[in-house]
Amino acid sequence: MHVLKVIEHMLPATIHPMVVHFTIAITYLATLAGLIGLVRRKSDFWPKSFLYLLGLGVLATIAAGVAGVVSESYISHISPTVAPMFHHHKEYGVLTGVALLLAFAAQWLLGMRRQRVAMIGFLASLAATILVTLAGHLGGTLVYHDAFGIS
């Protein structure tokens, strides 16, 4: 276990904010590609783009979660005033990943057969967009309002 702590602390405390922006951008882009694919049904470009972006979004969310655990390991004390907000921030992050994974699975299983955007996949990506927005809002509030994680 000690070796993991050493490896963990080879990464900077700021790794989470450096990585999480990929999740945010890719989630928004995936949902946009899904929306365009629903409108432009004759093109097979948008369903494929939607699928690929969802896959990248899942990977980026995993990376952001791991980076969050690393960044959290640098924090020695979490005050009772920010603890609930921090807990919700982490919950929304996990739920973002779940929604992206559901969207990816739905698009893979339902949408790609017909070369179109699956409505259930789009709705799950829309939920992921809302969730990542909430997580980002709470994360930004923690940093900029409460100076959480700032040495």
Automatic annotation (TrEMBL):
Top-level lineage group: Bacteria
Signal peptide coordinates: none
Keyword field: Membrane, Transmembrane, Transmembrane helix
Domain named DUF2231: residues: 14-149
Descriptive protein name: Putative membrane protein
Transmembrane segments: 20-39, 51-71, 91-110, 117-138
Cross-referenced Pfam families: DUF2231
